[in-house]
Specification:
Belongs to the HPS/KGPDC family. HPS subfamily. This is 3-hexulose-6-phosphate synthase. It is an enzyme of class 4 (lyase). The structure is a single chain. With 217 residues, the chain is α/β, with parallel strands linked by helices. It has one domain: Aldolase class I (TIM Barrel), CATH 3.20.20.70. It contains 8 helices and 8 strands, in the order βαβαβαβαβαββαβαα. It has an 8-stranded parallel barrel with strand order 1-2-3-4-5-6-7-8. The radius of gyration is 17 Å and the shape is globular. Bound molecules: the ligand O=C([C@H](O)CO)[C@H](O)[C@H](O)COP(=O)(O)O. The ligand O=C([C@H](O)CO)[C@H](O)[C@H](O)COP(=O)(O)O binds next to β8 and α7.
């Protein structure tokens, strides 16, 4: 299980510092939508140059003009870009085509998707990576509940990331659903001891994986 560190509502310097502080514990680095809006593709380029060993996710949240946005972000060095699930199939198809050319990937953000129909549709056009996403504003009046995972039940062929206010306290509940990637933002980036929290989360994941690999032997 990967940890994807989401960099949101931070300055460039804060982004760089928090990745340096958590470098050993995190696997994927996400440049958040707001950070991309503030600093653009130059910062995507800069982050790839600084942290070449990390899978760099640019949270573009594309909803139209997929061909252009995918080219833009992969050219800047992103390994993964995001597109909203409600985008037209053509947008997603165009992005998948560009991703193939750059040997990169497209993650479909399932924010707002509440039935399996759209999941089946995006799979049929070639999507293999999705993120189950309980949005920042939704977090003001609720949290990522177990039932939220039900739309992905039995989806063996999809690689699944999950995001939405995940903390040290909620991580055990999230891990139970065996996502491939756990996306964590504020619970690390807004803490005083960022490295320590990241280390604690990584250790929880290691223990969980150890327990399940032992119990299946
Ligand atoms: O995608 C995100 C959100 O829409 C803000 O742009 C976040 O990166 C994602 O939710 C993870 O952040 P936290 O919820 O703070 O863990």
């Amino acid at each position: 299980m990967n940890i994807q560190l989401a960099l949101d509502r931070l300055t460039k310097e804060e982004c760089i510092d928090v990745v340096n502080e958590t470098r050993e514990q995190i696997d994927w680095v996400e440049i958040g939508t707001g950070v991309i809006k503030e600093y653009g593709m130059d910062f995507v380029r800069d982050m790839k140059a600084r942290f070449p060993e990390k899978t760099l996710v640019a949270d573009m949240k594309t909803c139209d003009a997929g061909n252009h946005e995918a080219k833009q972000v992969f050219e800047a060095g992103a390994d993964v870009t995001t597109v909203m699930a409600f985008a037209a199939d053509q947008t997603i198809i165009d992005m998948l085509k560009v991703a193939k050319k750059y040997e990169s990937r497209v993650m479909v953000d399932l924010l707002g998707v509440s039935d399996t129909k759209r999941i089946t549709e995006i799979q049929s056009i070639g999507v293999d990576l999705v993120s189950l996403h309980f949005g920042k504003d939704m977090q003001k009046s609720g949290e990522l509940e177990d039932e939220y995972f039900s739309i992905l039940k039995g989806q063996e062929d999809l690689e699944i990331a999950v995001a939405g206010g995940i903390t040290v306290d909620s991580l055990p509940r999230v891990m139970k659903h065996n996502p491939d990637t756990v996306i964590v933002g504020s619970a690390i980036t807004k803490q005083e001891h960022k490295g320590k929290v990241a280390e604690q989360m990584k250790e929880m994941i290691r223990n969980y994986e150890r327990y399940y690999s032992n119990s299946s032997e």
